[in-house]
């Protein structure tokens, strides 16, 4: 009897995760306007009504989607270049930053697009903020540690600017402005200059 | 007869502009999902059916909204600090950049939010890109001129990073991360460091 219950819980968790992943893909492709319970069923290849069964309301679906997104983002970032937070060489840190930007804007472009959709939605639905804020604090700490290791003069304030810069580069790439085109070292060089500037005030 | 025709053209132009402004306000408040012809009529305080009469399709409404947004943005930017493109002092340029970011993220926050909604939509509807691309080229030229005047080593590539940084700061402020909180000089100082870094490679 207990075994069966455990199996049911595991199945429910897996199904909810599958639906949240399908919601992320739907959001990336069709935007907030295209995100419906039926569209998520179609994306997941599940019978109509499945998404409504697991997430009764739009709010429940959105919240699960944000939570799943944050979970995947955080796991992905944990595997990113060791230089983040550990190197004191601006060029090495800049290369690591550029790599995260490129990875999230290209291979993980769908998830990143969904994140911007959800961030705009969170501006209208404060109940979505908690999960996003937790992720933001995590990114901020990582950026601050990275900048401090690279000799930054004011890591806390400069981390805000560095994260904004990364977000802006990804957003612009995903919406057609393409700041990542051109030889890759040009972005790396511009970011190195930025990091040298952040360290400059100290010396 | 001709006088009357002229008056009709002027009235049509004014009404279309009024509807596009209402669409911008609707987008900022309710997102892409809330943008319907009826919602625009309500925002504009016009009888139901007006928006459909002037813009038969959703695409026509979206295109007019993007064009109006670009028109207002460009006019607004033309009135911004004289330091943009004319000063060689990093601290002065940083202050001007911070002022644009603050202005667009607060007093003009509605329009800026609508712009990000439209940029994401343009990723899905290439027919919206033309107007946005024209605006982007304009911003890029302005950023490049500004950086060149401030002694930047590679104004073209660095302009991409500067604009991304401004976009990211506004986006994050509008979606609740608030990088503009805290004493205003901290953002100014971080941007000054960035500009000094951009100039540093030269010297």
TrEMBL record, chains A, B:
InterPro entries: Homeodomain-like_sf, HTH-type_TetR-like_transc_reg, HTH_TetR, Tet_transcr_reg_TetR-rel_C_sf, TetR_C_31
Highest taxon of the lineage: Bacteria
Annotation: DNA-binding region: 36-55
PROSITE patterns: HTH_TETR_2
Pfam families linked: TetR_C_31 (PF17940), TetR_N (PF00440)
Domain HTH tetR-type: residue ranges: 13-73
Keywords linked to the UniProt accession: DNA-binding
Protein name stated in the entry: TetR/AcrR family transcriptional regulator
């Amino acid at each position: 009897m207990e075994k069966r219950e455990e199996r049911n819980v595991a199945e429910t968790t897996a199904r909810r995760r599958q639906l949240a992943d399908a919601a992320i893909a739907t959001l990336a492709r069709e935007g907030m306007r295209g995100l419906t319970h039926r569209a998520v069923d179609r994306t997941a290849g599940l019978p109509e009504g499945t998404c409504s069964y697991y997430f009764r309301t739009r709010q429940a679906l959105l919240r699960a989607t944000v939570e799943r997104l944050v979970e995947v983002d955080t796991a992905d970032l944990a595997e990113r270049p060791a230089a983040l937070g550990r190197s004191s060489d601006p060029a090495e840190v800049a290369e690591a930053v550029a790599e995260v930007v490129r990875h999230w804007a290209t291979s993980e472009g769908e998830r990143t697009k969904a994140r911007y959709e959800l961030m705009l939605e969170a501006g209208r639905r404060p109940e979505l903020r908690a999960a996003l804020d937790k992720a933001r604090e995590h990114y901020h700490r990582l950026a601050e540690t990275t900048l401090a290791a690279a000799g930054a003069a004011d890591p806390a304030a400069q981390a805000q600017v560095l994260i904004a810069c990364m977000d802006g580069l990804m957003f612009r790439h995903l919406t057609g402005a393409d700041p990542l085109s051109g030889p890759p070292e040009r972005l790396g060089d511009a970011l190195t200059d930025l990091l040298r500037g952040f360290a400059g005030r100290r010396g």
